[in-house]
TrEMBL record:
Function: Poorly processive, error-prone DNA polymerase involved in untargeted mutagenesis. Copies undamaged DNA at stalled replication forks, which arise in vivo from mismatched or misaligned primer ends. These misaligned primers can be extended by PolIV. Exhibits no 3'-5' exonuclease (proofreading) activity. May be involved in translesional synthesis, in conjunction with the beta clamp from PolIII.
A Pfam family assignment: IMS
DNA damage is among the record's keywords: yes
A GO biological process held by the record: DNA repair
Similarity comment: family membership: Belongs to the DNA polymerase type-Y family.
Protein name listed in UniProt: UmuC domain-containing protein
Ranges of residues in domain UmuC: 30-154
Keyword list, A-Z: DNA damage
Alphabetized InterPro entries for the sequence: DNA/RNA_pol_sf, Rev_trsase/Diguanyl_cyclase, SulA_CellDiv_inhibitor, UmuC
Length: 539
């Protein structure tokens, strides 16, 4: 049977975090975007008809005065740290579910304050006084049910959690594909899903479906196989000689420990579902936090949560009355507080696959340890209109996420002069078609900085482009700095782009050309405010 759980939920936390960290007023119409979609919005924005899932263009059309903030999980986690610390002052054993939500076993606070409702009121008051943050609390059996109850600030009576969940729509599982399939099968509520036989659910929907079935039945979100790990699974790093004071240095140390922890768990055929992060500062201050995850924590996920937590400790949010630690961290420990057996992680009979990859990973990590995380970079393909926009370099080991989403819908980070914020169909096997993007072939070499040049017509006059995109002359010669003019034997263009025209400080308007000169070279040129420059070189 699931344990009575008290869950603290801060509504619209990404919006509140933006206000805490960046000073964005949450009283106005504010939305937080991820991949050009609304993931959170303020109360004022909802009053204008804005909801989660809307595209940026549609949200701005409903509210022209809308303030847009990009999604930043690290910012959300850093701002949430003071809230967790405030809860810890009145309740022990707090576990972070996600930025904006944390949970604690309800029995202890209920006994101390004289009841579950009194405990909830005391915690809400503590958060408001310490952090100035609005919060809601739900109490039920299990974290999942308590989280749904928190949306209505409800205390579900003991033993009636399954009844409480029965009438809730299957979308509450936050698994869109599963919810869509269940609705097509005629199952629209959690109660209907919970009535299905467990064995049939496991065979039809797999491990994740079986986990969702447990949630719908009012059971805890972790399988019964969860057990206390043996002591030798935790990993510890010592930094007495050089205490960790900067977030980037601490995050790198945390990533090394995260990989070590993941490898140690894999050797036992286990995976982590709940992670304890402990640290000690040079002046003796002890810090501790527990992160809960609905599923299995990979090495990258462990490292990400360690980075968030270290950022929260070393860079306290502005509203927090407790200053950041006065001294650096001298000890960091990762404790797998909850583990499950996961046979898919066991080594093969004849050894691990991909040993060469592991050796390369260790070698590159060693280089980073000597020269810093930015010493080893990998390229990630992104969306964009220009050659320099379509590649993003990320440090080795970091999540390889495109800077611009590669979805079928054109992102609203740049808008073409002729096509503005329109969806463009994607042909099979091709990437997203950006309006105004460069035609194929792609250039072979993109210059780190554009190189100034001059384009002249046959009479030696400078070639320009009018406001109506008409050339003032036919390109005849290309003159590079320090060299004589080279005859242009072929050219194409102009391709105009007016990017971020709505943001005065970020707007960029230019026209691009492809030119070939007599000696066989080919260039991608750009014309900005009457100045020509080489952006890239073709083979």
């Amino acid at each position: 049977m699931s344990v009575r759980t008290l869950l603290v939920w801060c509504p619209d936390w990404p919006v509140a975090a933006a206000e805490i960290v960046e000073g964005v007023s949450a009283a106005g119409a504010v939305v937080v975007l991820r991949a050009n979609r609304v993931v959170a919005c303020s109360e004022a924005a909802r009053a204008e008809g804005i909801r989660k899932g809307l595209r940026r263009r549609e949200a701005q059309s409903r509210c022209p005065q809308l303030t847009v903030v990009e999604h930043d999980p690290a910012r959300d986690a850093r701002a949430f740290e003071p809230v967790v610390a405030a809860v810890e002052e009145v309740a022990a054993g707090v576990e972070v579910v996600q930025p904006g939500a944390c949970a604690v076993v309800a029995r202890g606070p209920a006994r101390y304050f004289g009841g579950e409702e009194l405990a909830a009121e005391r915690i809400i008051e503590q958060i408001a006084q310490a952090c100035g943050v609005e919060s809601q609390i739900g109490i039920a059996e299990g974290v999942f049910a308590a989280g749904l109850a928190a949306r209505d600030s409800k205390v579900v009576e003991a033993g009636r959690t399954k009844e409480f969940l029965a009438g809730i729509a299957v979308e509450a599982l936050e698994r869109p594909e599963l919810a869509d399939l269940l609705k097509r099968l005629g199952i629209r509520t959690l109660g209907g899903f919970a009535q299905l036989p467990r064995g049939d659910v496991l065979s039809r929907f797999g491990f994740d479906g079986a986990l969702a079935h447990r949630l719908a039945a009012g059971l805890d979100h972790r399988p019964l196989a969860v057990r206390e790990p043996p002591p030798d699974l935790q990993v510890t790093g010592f930094y007495e000689d050089e205490p960790l004071e900067r977030v980037d240095v601490a995050a790198f140390a945390g990533r090394v420990l995260a990989e070590k922890l993941h490898d140690r768990l894999a050797a036992y055929g286990m995976a982590c579902t709940r992670l304890g992060i402990e640290a000690v500062t040079a002046d003796g201050l002890e810090l501790q936090r527990v992160w809960r995850h609905d599923g299995l924590l990979t090495a990258a996920a462990i490292a990400e949560r360690v980075r968030w937590q270290l950022d929260g400790w070393l860079n306290r949010a502005a509203r927090n009355k407790t200053a950041k630690p006065a001294a650096g961290l001298i000890r960091l420990r990762l404790v797998p507080d909850g583990v499950i057996v996961h046979l898919g992680l066991q080594p093969g009979l004849w050894g691990d696959a991909g040993a060469e990859r592991e050796r390369a990973h260790r070698a590159l990590s060693r280089v980073q340890g000597l020269l810093g995380p930015e010493a080893v970079l990998t390229a990630v393909a992104s969306g964009g209109r220009s050659a320099d926009d379509q590649i993003r370099f990320v440090p080795w080991g970091d999540e390889r996420v495109a800077a611009r989403p590669g979805a079928h819908v054109v992102p609203v980070t740049a808008v073409d002069l002729e096509v503005r914020e329109e969806e463009v169909p994607v042909e099979a096997g091709q990437g997203p078609q950006w309006p105004g993007r460069l035609p194929v072939p792609a250039p072979a070499l993109v210059l780190p900085r554009p190189e100034p040049v001059v384009v002249l017509d046959a009479g030696g006059a400078l070639v320009g482009v009018s406001a109506r995109l008409e050339l003032t002359g036919t390109p005849g010669f290309l003159q590079l700095d320090g060299g004589g003019p080279a005859e242009i034997v072929g050219w194409a263009g102009p391709w105009p782009v007016d990017e971020r025209w709505w943001a005065a400080g970020e707007a960029r308007r230019r026209a691009r050309f492809q030119v070939a000169v007599a000696d066989g070279r080919a260039f991608l040129l750009s014309l900005v405010a009457g100045h020509w420059a080489i952006e890239a070189v073709y083979d």
